[in-house]
Automatic annotation (TrEMBL):
UniProt key word DNA-binding: no
Protein name as annotated: HIT domain-containing protein
Domain HIT: 10-119
A Pfam family annotated for this UniProt entry: DcpS_C
One MF annotation (Gene Ontology) recorded for this entry: nucleotide binding
Keywords recorded for this protein, A-Z: Hydrolase, Nucleotide-binding
Species the sequence originates in: Arachis hypogaea (Peanut)
Catalytic residues (positions): H107
Length: 142
């Protein structure tokens, strides 16, 4: 269920520019910024401006597919710009209950992981683990 911006959601505050967070990208649909606890050489989050709690709130609808595609395009563009020599990128979402903030956010990682053990946070664990963005797009393709 999509909802209006929530004053109790830290990512809604970032999306509405109510915090001092430096935005790496901003448009009418998404904003992007650095993760405050980076797990890789570069670790960015791309979030929708509209409050969408988790990947479970997205459906096989053209608008949901277009939003996730746009999030992925923004993430790729940022990593190509800021980590051009990184040969390994990962893009994906944590699924509930392993998501840390209930506002949809795409993790964009330019590897290597730092520290190396952080790769564990980004392992697919079936329906509750990390899901790669491309795989998730297949799941919600209209």
């Amino acid at each position: 269920m999509m909802a209006a911006a929530s004053s109790s959601c830290v990512f809604c505050e970032i999306a509405t520019r109510s915090t001092a967070t430096t935005l790496l990208h901003s448009d009418d649909k998404v904003v992007a910024f650095q993760d405050i606890r980076p797990s890789a050489f570069r670790h960015y989050l791309v979030i929708p401006v509209q409050h969408i709690p988790t990947v479970n709130d997205l459906q096989r609808k053209t608008e949901d597919y277009a939003l996730v595609t746009h999030m992925l395009e923004v993430g790729r563009m940022l990593l190509l710009r800021d980590a051009p020599h990184s040969n390994h990128h990962r893009f994906g979402f944590h699924q509930p209950p392993l998501n840390s903030v209930n506002h949809l956010h795409l993790h964009c990682l330019a590897l290597p992981y730092t520290p190396r053990w952080r790769f564990l946070k980004y392992m697919p664990l079936g329906p509750i683990g990390f899901i790669e963005a491309e795989r998730f797009l297949e799941k919600i393709k209209p």
